[in-house]
Amino acid sequence: MINNKKLVVVLPAYNASKTLKNTYNEIPFEFVDEVVLVDDASGDDTAEVARSLGIKTIVHDRNKGYGGNQKTCYRAALDLGADIVVMLHPDYQYTPRLVTAMASMIAFGEFDAVLGSRILGIGALQGGMPRYKYIANRLLTFLENVLLGHKLSEYHTGYRAFSRELLEQLPLDLNSDNFLFDNQVIAQIIWYGFRVGEVSCPTKYFPEASSINFRNSVVYGVGVMVTALQFRLSRMGLMHARIFPGGNAQ
Questions:
Q1: Within 10 Å of residue 146's Cβ, how many Cβ atoms?
Q2: At residue 237, does pLDDT exceed 70?
Q3: CA terminus-to-terminus distance, the chain
Q4: Residues 6+ positions from 112 with CB-CB distance below 8 Å
Q5: Residue 183: its pLDDT value, please?
Q6: What is the pLDDT of residue 214?
Q7: Class of domain 7-235
Q8: pLDDT tens-digit profile of 103-130?
Q9: What is the pTM (predicted TM-score) of this model?
Q10: Within the chain, where are the H helices?
Q11: Which region, left, alpha or beta, applies to residue 101 given φ > 0 means left and ψ of -120 to 50 means alpha?
């Protein structure tokens, strides 16, 4: 626990058997109360490796997509009584050592959500981020800051921490079951006026680390811009986007 808050780490997994053990071994268990892995119908032995490590493991009977996986993760964490949930990819791309720092920012009441930013600092390209992804990241983030009226260094990181109250209030089931889920969540966080912080997070790219291909990156980028435009038009009262219910929230 941190400040008497129960901390649960969730691992949305797909074909992560080669990297799961390294990820798990670096989780700071002196503060983490439970770990839950959701295996999205992997084609390898991810679930078996997870169980051998003593991880509470949930296996989808069919592939539900990256967003669908996270929906199961958060429901499971809340069912376990989590006060703080940290979503950590089990592909060892993000360092688990930042779990404590990210969770602490929520546990002590400073933020409702914390993002591990690959862009703060100078580590993204040095860590191996493809240059086209870096450029797209910077461009999309700039446009989102303008349309969402917020200021973040990155909207596209997969390393996140959330308070229980935030997860209970956001309409997560309205979001995509695929990669766009991550971006829609941040837009909803801003829509509902939750406080979001960032920490600088080193990242590494290597063959075993998961990454979406160029085609899916393009589809994701288009979806990001659609989400941002829906946010802006809904905020202006010109439309009522499904993922932003309740009228002009904040």
A1: 12
A2: yes
A3: 32
A4: 106, 162, 163, 165, 166, 189, 194, 195, 196
A5: 97
A6: 75
A7: alpha beta
A8: 999 999 999 999 999 888 766 666 667 7
A9: 0.92
A10: 20-25, 46-52, 65-79, 99-107, 123-126, 131-148, 164-169, 180-191, 214-235
A11: alpha
Gap between the Cα atoms of 189 and 7, Å rounded: 20
Q: Is the pLDDT of residue 58 over 60?
A: yes
How many angstroms separate the CA atoms of 62 and 124, rounded?
A: 33
CB 22 within 8 A of CB 92: yes
Integer Cα distance of 170 and 138 in angstroms:
26
Listed by start position, the domains of the chain span 7-235
209 pLDDT higher than 70: no
Q: Torsion-angle region of residue 14: left (phi > 0), alpha (psi -120 to 50) or beta? A: beta
Phi and psi (nearest 5°) for 116? -90, 100
Q: Compute CA distances 170 → 184, 201, 228, whole Å.
A: 10, 25, 17
134-193 pLDDT, tens digit per residue, is: 888 899 999 999 999 999 999 999 999 999 999 999 999 999 999 999 999 999 999 999
Residue 230, phi then psi, degrees to nearest 5: -60, -40
Q: What pairs with residue 37 in β-bridges?
A: 11, 57
What is the pairing mode between strands 56-59 and 34-39? Answer: parallel
Cβ atoms within 10 Å of 194's Cβ, excluding its own? 19
Angle between helices 214-235 and 180-191 (to 10 degrees): 20
